[in-house]
Amino acid sequence: MKSNIGEVRPAPHCPRLTPLRTQRGGIATLTLVWLVIIGAIYGVFFVWLAREENPNPQRLLQQQGLQGEVVLKRNRAGHYVADGEINGERVVFLLDTGATQVALPMQLARRLGLQLGPAVTVQTAAGPAPGYQTRLNSVRLASIEMRNVTALVSDGLDPDMVLLGMNFLKRLEMIQRDDQLILRTVNSKK
User: Fold this and answer.
1) 148 backbone φψ class: left, alpha, beta (φ>0; ψ -120 to 50)
2) Distance between CA 39 and CA 67 in Å, rounded?
3) d(CA 155, CA 157)
4) In the structure, how many helices (H) and strands (E) does the chain have?
5) With left for phi above 0 and alpha for psi between -120 and 50, is residue 127 left, alpha or beta?
6) What is the pLDDT confidence band of residue 148, given thresholds at 50, 70 and 90?
7) Which residues are within 8 A (CB) of 160 and not within 5 positions of it... i.e. 6 or more apart?
8) Where is pLDDT greater, at 73 or 59?
9) Cα(84)–Cα(72) distance, rounded to whole angstroms?
10) In the predicted model, is pLDDT for residue 101 greater than 90?
11) Which of 5, 54, 137, 175 has the fewest Cβ atoms within 10 angstroms?
């Protein structure tokens, strides 16, 4: 008869030890699950942040029914930012009553194929900067469109933002209430 003394047997309630190969597979799966979770959190945060920066995406503006009137929501920073179009190309506008003209970055002007006119010195919040005059065939903010709009092009501007200046805005009636800005063409019905 053989003695079982010295032989180690796991207790029935204890988990069995798995080979190292299976443990590595579990670690890889766990790592993959965490990467998916982190990626999902990042995606949700990115969408939320984009909505906070621009609460007026083009799809919302297109749902507004009144021709010649646009209602914009103010973003968290207190600015009015909205999707729009220049010469049929989608852009993001920052409404800027301190800008004399529509102003766009050089990168966008090149992408739109704009012809640059005479060089000028542009006065910005950061000081003087070189710029160029140009003309835009059309500028559209939802149902409000203006044609043959003068503009300035400069390297010193945010590459993702177009300043919608007073040469566009002065042709509109502007009403600010709470966190909304109502823009109407002067000849639109109220």
Assistant:
1) left
2) 41
3) 6
4) 4, 10
5) left
6) very high
7) 92, 105
8) 73
9) 12
10) yes
11) 5
Q: Which two tokens stand for residue 72?
A: 């914009």
CA distance 30 to 14: 22
Ranking 49-63, 112-126, 153-167 by mean pLDDT, the lowest is 49-63
Tokens of 48: 């939320």
Q: Residue 155: pLDDT band by 50, 70, 90 thresholds?
A: confident
Helix (H/G/I), strand (E/B), else coil: 29: helix
Using alpha carbons, list the distances in angstroms from residue 54 to 73, 91, 109, 182, 184. Answer: 9, 12, 22, 16, 20
Spatial distance between the Cα atoms of 107 and 104, rounded to a whole number of angstroms: 8
Q: Helix, strand or coil for residue 68?
A: coil
Task: Round the average pLDDT of the chain to a whole number and report it.
Answer: 82
> 91 near 140, Cβ under 8 Å?
no
* Six token digits for residue 47: 């969408």
- 90-99: pLDDT as tens digits: 999 999 999 9
User: Using an 8 Å Cβ cutoff, are 138 and 87 in contact?
Assistant: yes
